[in-house]
Design goal:
Length: 314
């Protein structure tokens, strides 16, 4: 009997030891990945992503995909890693695969649409973004992205309604005001453009490209003094804004401030825009104005999309 009790105690201790090892995530009998190790692999991939180790995170998600090819998590998260690494084609393939698994996953629709736009596939991009907007009609970022793709296509009139939609949901959406202003400027709605650029300037606390854009609209209305003032403000915020020097120089020459205008054109020439300055030099040290009519139309839209960058969790 004593031996029997000892045997039972030893057996119970052995079972407890096995249970403890299992809880610690060890793999037995040569099985390389158990459910626990899959969870561990996911956590590892997320940690690597959060540490901005995107290459290693992408590989970890690749291993996860091999075990779970029918789950959206791996494809979407690996797509995020590829996006961060600048591998647009690989990222777009992963987002597309994620959407084949779950067609209504909004972050994948948005990011896929953004990448397609970057590839010049505007129609496919808009299909993704408009679908996302149908699913989340009050999201200002989706409306903004849709408007910006339309603007890239040159469909300025169509872009206006989506910028308006974004602004109606987010009253302080600075980038939307700026971009809507550019669409208005392209459509010849100069007063509306000035209003939007002014709003963007106030919301941002003053930003060089917003002043530059308003100057262009003021030029179109013949408000030369105000345009020169805006170019000056743009230069104050960024001394390397070559187009502002160039345009201000031409306006100053038109206004009779030849010396100041030549100084601006010389600065523009030092930064790469030289044809007008050299032409005027040959004609008498910037004294002849009959060709001083080509303005730099370097309008400055906000080119950054609102992209989702948070990994999908389960």
């Amino acid at each position: 009997m004593p031996n029997s009790k000892i045997d039972r105690i030893f057996h119970l201790i052995s079972l407890a030891a096995v249970l403890l090892l299992a809880l610690n995530g060890c793999a037995f009998f040569g099985n390389p990945i158990s459910d626990n190790s899959n969870a561990s692999l996911k956590q590892q991939a997320l940690r690597l992503y959060n540490k901005q180790q995107y290459e290693r995170a992408a590989k970890a998600w690749g291993s996860y995909i091999q075990e779970h090819p029918d789950k959206i998590t791996g494809y979407y998260n690996r797509g995020l890693c590829y996006s961060k690494l600048g591998r647009s084609i690989q990222a777009q393939k992963d987002y597309k695969q994620a959407l084949e698994i779950q067609s209504d996953y909004i972050p994948a629709l948005i990011n896929n649409g953004i990448l397609l736009a970057g590839m010049g596939k505007y129609q496919e991009s808009l299909q993704n973004l408009k679908h996302a907007l149908e699913l989340e009609p009050r999201d200002p970022s989706i409306a903004f992205n849709t408007a910006y793709v339309l603007q890239q296509k040159g469909e300025y009139k169509q872009s206006l309604k989506y910028y308006e939609r974004a602004i109606s949901e987010k009253k302080d959406f600075t980038r939307a005001f700026n971009n809507r202003g550019i669409a208005c400027l392209k459509l010849g709605k100069y007063e509306s453009a000035i209003g939007d650029f002014t709003r963007a300037i106030h919301l941002s606390g003053g930003k060089n490209n917003y002043y530059f854009n308003r100057a262009r609209a003021r030029e179109e209305l013949g408000r030369i003094d105000k345009a020169i003032s805006d170019y000056t403000r743009a230069i104050e915020y960024e001394t390397g804004l070559v187009a502002a020097y160039y345009n201000r120089g031409l306006l100053r020459i038109e206004q009779g401030a030849t010396r100041q205008g030549c100084s601006d054109l010389a600065e523009a020439c030092s930064q790469g825009i030289c044809s007008k300055y050299r032409s005027l030099q040959r004609q008498g040290v910037c004294s002849k104005q009959d060709e001083a009519s080509q303005k730099s139309n370097q309008l400055s839209p906000e080119t950054s999309f609102d992209q989702y960058s948070s990994p999908k969790l389960e």
